[in-house]
Amino acid sequence: MFDFKSLIQTLFAPRDTGPNVRDLRSATEMLGELPESDRLMAQVEIIKALQQLNQNLRINTKERCRTIPYLDEKARKLQDQLIGIYHGTIIDEHAPRAQLLLTITAFWKEMGTAYQLCLKQALHASSKSTDNLLPLFTLRAMRYYCEHTKWAYLRYMPLDDKTWRRINRLYFFADQQGFADGMLAPYADSPHSSIRREYMKILMLTLAAPEKMQPDQVELVAHWLEKWVGRIDLEEIIRPHRQLFAINIAGSSPPQRLRRDMVGANWRYWFTDTLVQHLKETLVRLQQGAAASDVGLPARTSLPANLELMQRLGDLWSRDKPAPARRHDRQTSNKNIRVLRGLDAIIAHLAKHAPHSGSVNISNELTQALAADQARWTVENESLRGIGVQFRHARDDKLQTGEIVGMLPEETDSPLSIGIVRRLTKQSDGQMNAGIETITVSPLVVDIRAKPENPSCRAIFSPEDSSTRQGRLLLVPQAYFGENLDCTLAAQGKTYRIRLSKAQEHTTDAILAGFSVLAKGHA
To answer: Cα dist. 491→324, 459, 461, 466, 495 in Å?
Structure first.
């Protein structure tokens, strides 16, 4: 095992001394010396070789076009294994998670760059012996940029202008050469695809608002798009009443909603009516009880939170729905808040500070843990229904959208309010920006029990709020919730017979649901 600092230096500060990979022969020798038992170190060495090749512009075209595919073929299996270790499907105690992530993401970037250099050098070479490789190399490069994009979004990191320029120019090149739509197997063991399909996967994943999804949902949408992008095509002629999105394939910007000034030879446009209709039909079948495998999608598609996600995508990609917009004006702010993360921590805090908290069993260990675990974030702006915050993400790498947080202003004695993280953006300098929607400013801990013989469950009650037009609701732990479940609700010395309504939203650890009161009583 080696330390994190050394790995960073290895990946991003190539050595000036020592053996260099400069051709197929030196690459073969290097691979023969790789440690078979240490997959992580082996892949690090391959990445170093790629960096050396990418920085050495003196290598001739033929040698570069032989060496890069050779390294690619050798590294693919290693990369799959490292991804398996990262996700926990392969056990390797000698591969720390932080080092895995750095290595995995560095490989996508370096290999994509390597193939793009092959194309650039081949295009300007006097000999045309490598021209037959251009479609294959372009497809492989686009696939690697697709993986690079997905893994950036899994970490809530947006693509920078330089990366977008490389991606767009790659498609621009394929379009000019006339092979963007050609179906081709990128590897002998891979299904056929096209450069346009891989490009559209990048564009549509970006237009899925990944900054508002959980990482496993980003991965899931990428799986969905494998099945769906064939229903979208790029067009050269603008049709504002039909098309919805546009991209400048010679520019350095991501795709955008179509505007009438987006006109020119380098603009491409597409409509989503066919895709959205298919998505709606798929959603109906799943809601009616069809298995996800029946519609060719992963099994986890059928989870309630992912059905909600599919509905949101249908709205986001539909011409019949207005573009997303803020519902309330934001005002600049500059104050600090203390933050509790997760339903359990919020319930424990509310119970401890309730008027009759002496009757609540909150151990000293738990209260000390809560105090130590409170994060401190800076509020940059706020509105009637939410806040925008900023903080350093080194300690909060596991924060996800959909997470429930409790918020306490540091400068005042205001009570705790509760919100849901709706948007996350992680900057390369270690800064995280988040948008939080406020659910309630007057939460109350309640006990709910489905049957007298069953144990009770702590939940949070949010009263009706006329200022935001929000009805009363409950935040119930996921394991306890059931649609139309009859329960006894106890709070402040009173009991109520209630019936839970259909879930309004599935968060990371709780269900938001309304309820109807069946009977009132006293404890």
So the answer is: 38, 10, 9, 22, 6
- The answer to whether residue 2 scores a pLDDT higher than 50 is no
Pairing, β 404-409 against β 331-341: antiparallel
DSSP helix/strand/coil, 355: coil
CATH topology of domain 444-522: Thrombin, subunit H (2.40.10)
Contacts of 451 (CB under 8 A, 6+ apart): none
Q: How far apart are CA 90 and CA 86, in angstroms?
A: 8
Cβ pair 295, 266 in contact under 8 A: no
The torsion region of residue 120 among left (phi > 0), alpha (psi -120 to 50) and beta comes to: alpha
Count CB atoms within 10 A of the CB of residue 23.
Answer: 17
Q: Please tell me the pTM assigned to this model.
A: 0.89
pLDDT in tens, 173-206: 999 999 999 999 999 999 999 999 999 999 999 9
| Lookup: tokens for 361 | 């069993």
The fourth-level CATH superfamily of domain 333-440 is predicted glycosyltransferase like domains (2.40.10.220)
Q: Of the candidates 66, 77, 68, 73, which has an alpha carbon nearest to the alpha carbon of residue 49?
A: 68
Which pLDDT score is estimated for 4? 43
Residue labelled with tokens 């032989």: 66
Residue range(s) occupied by CATH 2.40.10.220 in the chain? 333-440
Q: What is the pLDDT of residue 324?
A: 77
Closest C-alpha to 106, from 166, 46, 19, 36 = 46
d(CA 133, CA 138): 8
- Mean pLDDT, the chain, rounded, equals 88
Q: Give the mean model confidence (pLDDT) for residues 227-242.
A: 95
